[in-house]
Design brief:
The protein is an alpha/beta fold and about 240 residues long. The chain has a domain at about 65-225: Carbonic anhydrase (Beta-carbonic Anhydrase, Chain A, 3-Layer(aba) Sandwich), CATH 3.40.1050.10. The chain contains 10 helices and 5 strands; from the N terminus they run ααααββαβααααββα.
Length: about 240
Amino acid sequence: MFKKQLAALLAAAAFVMPMAAQASDHHAGDAAVAQAFIKEIQTDQNAYAAAKGAAFFQELSKGQKPRATVVSCSDSRVHTNMWDKTPEGDLFMIRNIGNQLATAKGSVQYGVNHLGSSLLLIVGHSRCGAIGAASGDYSSLEEPIKKELDTINIAKGGASIDGVKANVNNQVAAALKEWAAQVKNGELLVVGAVYDFADDMKQGAGKLNVININGETDAAKLSSMPVPAAKAAHGHH
C-alpha cells in the first residue's frame, strides 16, 4: 500500500511541476519515509529472490548477452516491467534525463559494440520533465543538470509530446550516424519509441508507441515494415 501511495504522489507531482519549476520550489526528503521504504525494498527483494530460486541466479552469473541495449529516461514512472516481463539478462539498461546518447555514449557503445545487442531501443515518455525544461529557460538549475539539458536539441516553447518525439528522433539519428555500418549490414536495428502513460498521442494510455525504425518515421510505413529473419537464435556476437 505504501509503495502505491508513494508512486501516486510522485506521479502527481511530476505532472504539475516541470523540472525548472522544481529547482526554485524544492522540497527536502524525509528520512523516516526513506527508512520505511528501504525495509519495503528489502522485503520485496527477498520475496523476488525466493521466487526465482538459486538456479536462476546461477545462470545469470555466467555472463550476459542482452538482445537489446535500451536508453530510457530516469523518470520514476518509466521502468522495464512496462515492456518486458523478463528483463533480466535481456535488456542492457542506460538511464538518464532525456534518454540521451550524448550523456551516456560510453555505456551505449558497450552494449552495442561489446555485448552485441541486436536492438538499440531509445524510449522517451509523455510529460517528460527534461523535455519541458529543455524547451524553456533552465538557466537557474544546477550546472551539471544544465550540462545534460544542453544536449537536448528541441524547439523552445513547443508542445511537450512534440518535444518528446523530436528528441527521440534526434537520438535515433545520432545512433544511426554512430552505427551506420552495423545497421547497413543488418547487425543492428535502431528503434525510437514513446512510452505514453498520459495518452498524449491518443493511441491508448500506457502504450509503447514505436515512432522511428532506422530513421523511418512515417506511421503507415512503420506498420508495414517487414521483419528480417534472425541470423541465429540469440547467437549474436
